[in-house]
Amino acid sequence: MRQFFCSKDCPDLCAMRVETRDGRYRFQGLAERWSDPGFVCGKFKIYAAREIANGLRSWHKTPEGRREFAADQEAIAALAQFLAPWRDKKILYLRGSGSLAYNMGWWDVLFSALPNCWAVAGGPCDATGCAADEADFGVLQNPDVGVLEQAESIILYGKNAHATSQHLFAYLKQLQRQGKHIIAIDPVRTETSRMADRHIRIRPGCDGLLACALLTELGLEQGHDSQALRESAGVTAEDFQALLAVLRRGNTAHIKGFSIQRHGNGMNAYRWLNRLAVKTGTMDLLFFGHASKRFWKKPGAAFTHHLPVEQIPQALARGDFDLYVNVAANPAMTYPDSGTWRSGLSRTPTLVVDTCHSATTEHADFFLKVGGMFAQDDFMGSYFFPHQHARERLTEELSDMEAARLLAAAMDIPLTIRPREALYKTTPAPTRQYRDEPLPLLSPPPRPVDSYQLLTASHQTYLNSQILPGMELRLQVLHIHPADAASLGIDNGDALRVSGPAGDFVAEALITDDIVPGAVMCWKNIPMKEGIPNNALPSLPTDAGSGNGLAYYSTFVTLRKV
């Protein structure tokens, strides 16, 4: 048996034993301090079914038709020829989160060697939250998850661990059995909030208002009307008093979910949550995340030009770049303003490096098939938990690291891939030091008349856009509150056209009080009855500024029966 770990975009960093029997792989989760016994989540099984020996080949669209390559060396040689005319042209390079492990970074080093290759500044995941923690503490750092044992209460802010961190969810249930009091603050009733001892409903984007109201009521902040802020946040007086009682008792842990940073005021909200933890004496029990490659030096990519992430679709649609290079990402499905993305990909010659076909691959001029995480020796750390893991490849397919090395050689670009042992940092990481400075309070935008705030949520059965065909069929729904449905004459099962500033999609109505009034929710990054959710969303930055995060959740949509 061999040891392996999953390097998908998930904070858990699951390690497992792998047994090969009758040509098939069997995976058994390994225990961690916070996860004993260990387990392998259902999402991982989907990755294995999608990626291991899936039979895809590399191909190149030519005037004579699509040419497939039977051998990897042939594909690499053809790719070097494909790239030759663009070597000195203006190239946009984007690497996504198909695998977060360290050795994916050698693609960055390769393409940064081209003189006019632009990288992307910012991203859709954690950039706004990172900016908030760096502004407040000067460092991105997470406590050891074991300190949750010291907490009396644990508050989750927009953190649906059941869907996004299943090992944390299991640990929270264990802590709950030990007597920890768990509070979930979320506009949506999730499996995590059902598990919690108390679910506090809040209007989307109002976590900062709530934190400021609590600090004001505790006498730790001045100049604000705590009752007005509470009411604006949609939090009941009873829930507010319950939170005050928890904070006054002390030893309260705060876990910030990634969803909050996807609002237009997300950075400000995070900073108010940081302030709440610090001023109530529990900075050491404040959780967000840390870098997954924090233990190692960077590979050494040195891009001279960067394009802010929110500007990509329009830049491609205008033809600002001669070539677009897409490694392990599916932005045509997962980034806002999908319609403009599709237009840009159709206009701009595109190279896609990936393990599977995707909505982005459909627009590729050259597709380089790699074996994904199952084919790659690699290492990384969790971006929430304290641990790190290394692995050897399971399959003999072409790995990303090997593809980058072979392509660099074919293009006469020096590329020295250094082993993990030579990359460890030798200086200790800095510690958090709170910068107590004046902090304005940003409210979310007001809801326009006859419109609804669109939330796109993670689902426990898939990660990002990594689903198997057909999985979406039972998930193509739009959650809407009964009062909102009644005002629009909507019944369960009605087909609804959801229209936003950038476009629309069609989903089936699901009437439920699991969502607060004034907001609607669908599952993210899947094909709907027509179109996809990100059709409706404009590509806008958060309050962290251009080139940081994307404001997915500040879009208001209209609904019409079709």
Description:
With 562 residues, the protein is an alpha/beta fold. The chain folds into 3 domains: 51-125 and 294-422, Rossmann fold (3-Layer(aba) Sandwich), CATH 3.40.50; 127-287, Dimethylsulfoxide Reductase, domain 2 (3-Layer(aba) Sandwich), CATH 3.40.228.10; 452-561, Barwin-like endoglucanases, CATH 2.40.40. The chain has 16 helices and 24 strands. It has helices at residues 42-51, 72-83, 106-112, 127-137, 161-164, 166-177, 191-195, 207-217, 226-233, 237-249, 266-279, 312-318, 331-334, 338-347, 400-410, 482-488, and strands at residues 2-5, 15-21, 24-29, 59-62, 65-68, 91-95, 117-121, 153-157, 181-185, 198-200, 252-256, 286-287, 305-308, 323-327, 350-354, 366-369, 378-381, 388-391, 452-457, 477-480, 495-499, 504-511, 519-523, 556-561. Strands 5-4-16-15-14-6-7-13 form an 8-stranded mixed sheet, with helices on one face. A hairpin with a 2-residue loop joins strand 2 (15-21) and strand 3 (24-29). Helix 2 (72-83) crosses helix 15 (400-410) and helix 12 runs parallel beside helix 14. It is globular. The model has no long low-confidence stretch (mean pLDDT 97).
State the main characteristics:
16 helices, alpha/beta, Rossmann fold, Barwin-like endoglucanases
The main pleated sheet reads as:
8 strands, mixed
At CATH level 2, the architecture of the largest domain is: 3-Layer(aba) Sandwich
Question: How many strands in all?
Answer: 24
The CATH class of the largest domain turns out to be Alpha Beta
Give the overall silhouette.
globular
Strand order of the largest sheet: 5-4-16-15-14-6-7-13
Radius of gyration of CA atoms, rounded to a whole number:
24 Å
Strand fraction: 15-25%
**Percent range of helical residues:** 25-40%
Mean pLDDT: 97
Domain count, please report it: 3
Under CATH, the topology of the largest domain can be stated as Rossmann fold
Helices and strands: which structural class?
alpha/beta
Number of helices: 16
> Which parts are unreliable, with pLDDT below 50 for 5 consecutive residues or more?
none
Cα-to-Cα separation, first versus last residue: 55 Å
